[in-house]
């Protein structure tokens, strides 16, 4: 149930609240969550807790929490500055779900692969009518189509995660530097081939390779910006048998600074 009425910020707050309660008490009840986020929750109607219920359903479908009436969350490995952001954690979970298909529903599989199907593989950053573009996909046809409301919810969450910007009926897909730098900071190596970094690491967090095997446009300019800002250095490594990237620059090596 990823195609729910979600906005983004509430997902992050819910996740870290459940994580904190898991750390302190082992789990947290749905009623405790209501009491913490909905004023006078004990007197609330079902409608007043719908956003919380949708958020819980979303986080559970995404694999970040477990439970029904009592919820638990995975522990973060440490509290250092370089820990994955919520956006990075959610996107990595999406990639794991994609690899495990068909263990998730067809609808959830469509949700988590939209970015790759609509933007990354065809190598584009702008789609003016997302509703039409999504419903032209074969998987969308198989599930009976996706409503405008659900497309709008997808766009809101993707913008919050740092994957682009909503513009009218469209969506401009451009990965935010803070998201990409946070993911780069999790790499266990200091240096290696660009092919290894992209295909074996970055791709496990978020889609970044187009159908031609090159760095896709939604990530290319952000990658170049971070290089200019000194987050890493790229090199030719002409003796390396690995694949070169970034067009005529023919770059094969990366070193994290």
Uncertain stretches:
none
Identify the quaternary structure here: single chain
Total number of beta strands: 9
**Major sheet strand order:** 1-3-2
| Count of domains | 3
List keywords for this structure.
257 residues; alpha+beta; 3 domains; three-stranded antiparallel sheet; 11 helices; 9 strands; 46% helix; globular
How would you describe the overall organization of this protein?
- Helix 1 crosses helix 3 (50-61).
- The strands form three sheets. The chain has a three-stranded antiparallel sheet with strand order 1-3-2. A three-stranded antiparallel sheet has the order 4-6-5.
- The protein has 257 residues and is α+β, with helices and mostly antiparallel strands.
- The chain is globular.
- The longest helix is centred in the first third of the chain and has 17 residues, at 9-25.
- The protein has eleven helices and nine strands.
- 46% of the residues lie in helices and 12% in strands.
- The chain has helices at 9-25, 30-37, 50-61, 86-99, 106-120, 130-135, 138-142, 148-161, 177-184, 194-201, 217-228, and strands at 28-29, 65-67, 70-73, 126-127, 164-167, 170-173, 191-193, 232-235, 253-256.
- The chain starts with 8 loop residues before the first helix and ends with a strand.
- It folds into three domains: 9-73, no CATH class; 86-173, no CATH class; 178-256, no CATH class.
Brief synopsis:
By secondary structure, this protein is α+β, with helices and mostly antiparallel strands.
Walk me through the topology.
Blueprint lengths: L8 H17 L2 E2 H8 L12 H12 L3 E3 L2 E4 L12 H14 L6 H15 L5 E2 L2 H6 L2 H5 L5 H14 L2 E4 L2 E4 L3 H8 L6 E3 H8 L15 H12 L3 E4 L17 E4 L1
Helix pairs in contact: 1-3
